[in-house]
């Protein structure tokens, strides 16, 4: 059993999305489509934890920071939610 985020993101559960900002080694490339099935609010009202997360990401060379992690069921692998940060998907 996979437990997905229970928060509501900017885009609600059921929103159809497509992948953007793919990297060469990503399983899904730009244009892949799926459906949001859950969300996790990264900020969740705790600015200290969010700031710590940004510092950790920067140390790994990741300059972007999102507000939500979404669980998406991609059309080609239904029933298997995959976590993805908000700036790498967009509604369709």
Summarize the SSE layout with pairings:
Elements: E1 16-19, E2 33-41, H1 47-59, E3 68-74, E4 81-85, E5 89-91
Antiparallel strand pairs: 1-2, 1-5, 2-3, 3-4
Model description:
By secondary structure, the protein is of the alpha+beta class. It has one domain (16-91). It has one helix and five strands; from the N terminus they run ββαβββ. It has one helix at 47-59; strands at 16-19, 33-41, 68-74, 81-85, 89-91. A five-stranded antiparallel sheet has the order 4-3-2-1-5, with no helix packed on it. Strand 3 (68-74) and strand 4 form a beta hairpin. The N and C termini lie far apart (28 Å). The model has no long low-confidence stretch (mean pLDDT 84).
Q: Mind summarizing the main beta sheet?
A: 5 strands, antiparallel
Number of strands: 5
C-alpha Rg (nearest Å): 13 Å
End-to-end separation in angstroms reads 28 Å
Helicity range: 10-25%
Give a quick rundown of the structure.
By secondary structure, the chain is α+β, with helices and mostly antiparallel strands.
Keywords:
alpha+beta; five-stranded antiparallel beta sheet; 14% helix; globular
